[in-house]
Design goal:
heterodimer, A: mainly beta, 0% helix, B: mainly beta, four-stranded antiparallel β-sheet
Chain lengths: 113, 117
């Protein structure tokens, strides 16, 4: 099935640094979602974006829904060790069978002290 | 709110046996449940979508006779891997969407790691 492209694939950063990752698609979505997955766990929803151009924050996290509806980015400010994990974007078309999610390839974040 | 559980969290079985995985929505009614499969260091791939009381819709390439899905109630869906083989070993994750959680928001379970010997 289709997957969204995320970059970077992985990153090592130092505690306290800001992090930026993005997600691109060849097709448009009505909703963009960002999830974090810890090892051996299911994804946890971080931020949901419902409108093109929307900028939404959740604590140290900020995400934007691209104007073209084909991309989104996630920023994490002042990273801490518990930010370690895999971050997935997901695109969704609303309504009926189109409500299924299409996931990105993931960005693996590792934070060093 | 919006908690989804899975049972078991880990299962090891012999090749040729069948394994059933349960997915429950604990504090909401799940009109739709989704089953995903995730290989190590890979993304989640949707296997099938099930609506309560009707047959599941499988994604292309997923064998419906091998991965049996039942969504008999608004709080429970089951995935049965029939005649399991080593290549079925994977991390299986369900998600649920329904009334009271927001229109289209999916909430994920903690996953079940299946190892077929």
């Amino acid at each position: 099935g289709q997957q969204l492209n995320q970059s970077p694939q992985s990153m090592f950063i130092q505690e306290g640094e800001d992090v930026s990752m993005n997600c691109t698609s060849s097709s448009i979505f009505n909703t963009w979602l960002w999830y974090k997955q810890d090892p051996g766990e299911g994804p946890v929803l971080l931020i949901a974006l419902y409108k093109a151009g929307e900028l939404t924050s959740n604590g140290r996290l900020t995400a934007q829904f691209g104007i073209t509806r084909k991309d989104s980015f996630l920023n994490i400010s002042a990273s801490i060790p518990s930010d370690v994990g895999i971050y997935f974007c997901a695109g969704q078309l609303s309504g009926g069978t189109a409500s299924k999610l299409t996931f990105g390839t993931g960005t693996r974040l590792q934070v060093t002290l | 709110g919006a908690v989804v559980s899975q049972h078991p969290s880990r299962v090891i079985c012999k090749s040729g046996t069948s394994v059933k995985i349960e997915c429950r929505s604990l504090d909401f009614q799940a009109t739709t449940m989704f089953w995903y499969r995730q290989f190590p260091k890979k993304s989640l791939m949707l296997m099938a979508t099930s609506n309560e009381g009707s047959k599941a819709t499988y994604e292309q390439g997923v064998e419906k006779d091998k991965f049996l899905i039942n969504h008999a109630s608004l709080t429970l869906s089951t995935l049965t891997v029939t005649s399991a083989h080593p290549e079925d070993s994977s991390f299986y994750i369900c998600s649920a969407r329904g009334t009271g959680t927001g229109t289209d928001t999916q909430y994920f379970g903690p996953g079940t790691r299946l190892t077929v010997l």
